[in-house]
Amino acid sequence: MRFLAVIGVGMALAACGCGRPPSAAIGPRTTPFLNYLREPGASMVAYAPAGNVDRELGLLRQKFDGLVLYGFDEKTSRVLATAASLHYRAILATIWDPRSDHEIEQAATLLPKYVNTMAIAVSIGSEGLLENRYHFDDLENAAESLDRKSPIRFERTTSEPWWRYLDGQPDAARLRNFGEFVTVHVHVVWDADITDPAEAARWSRDRAVQIMNMSSSPVLVREAGFPGDGSSPRASREGFPFTREAQAKFWREWVALRERQPAAGRAFVSLAVAFEAIDNPTKEWRNFEGSWGLLAPGTLEPWPAWSEFPDLHAQ
Known about the structure:
Blueprint: H1 2-16, H2 32-38, E1 44-46, H3 53-60, E2 66-68, H4 76-85, E3 90-95, H5 101-110, E4 119-126, H6 136-149, E5 155-161, H7 172-176, E6 182-185, H8 188-191, H9 197-215, E7 219-223, H10 244-260, E8 269-270, E9 273-274
Parallel strand pairs: 1-2, 1-9, 2-3, 3-4, 4-5, 5-6, 6-7, 7-8
């Protein structure tokens, strides 16, 4: 009888999840979002609402079937509902501030509503280690909190510049092992003396491959690109102008690389994301920072780079 009682207690603990640490992984490593990234046609865009959400997402759906979001705010509910109605297939949501109980609550409340219609993953934090907005322990605490609050355990990652994952950087090994996949930002305009857009695209891809080889995990390039205006911030290239034509050449090469990049096996590199959807004039700290977009703000007129992405057929 005592043996049966122990079995019963064990089954109860397993059912409620009380018998495992809050941060323990549940379910297989290969999950719906990673399966989406493995598809050759996966096409995502980094999106921050600039005006009418329905209009913006309707236009973007011509080229993209996935969205990268940057936080939970008053517009997030509308964005998710509209994306589902337009048959977007994947969302990488972001808890911008892992110390924010409000953002974690929003993620736990909103995202489960869409698990049957979209593949969803969560980036816990975005460049906050780089900017000293939080510490690595905050990422782990937020992950445990999200696990407790959400009825669904979402695939998760965090996002930092690629070089933060290299040995010798603070918490590099922990970063490479956080979540189900690694997410990197690769900005050649900050990190290398490369002015040829096609070469810049290849260099950016190669940095992701470098991190994949170190981590043995899937690597998603969440941010890479070429500004369409302004000039280089690097002293060795001071005054080098960014143009819309060069921006288009970067994305032409990126799309070609994406089509040739294998996504088989446990570890792969995904070039699915375009950064970013719409120019953001509020980014004023450098003269190029507001000009990463594929579309002009307000009018949503396409820049030349827009045409480098193939049209999709909404399903």
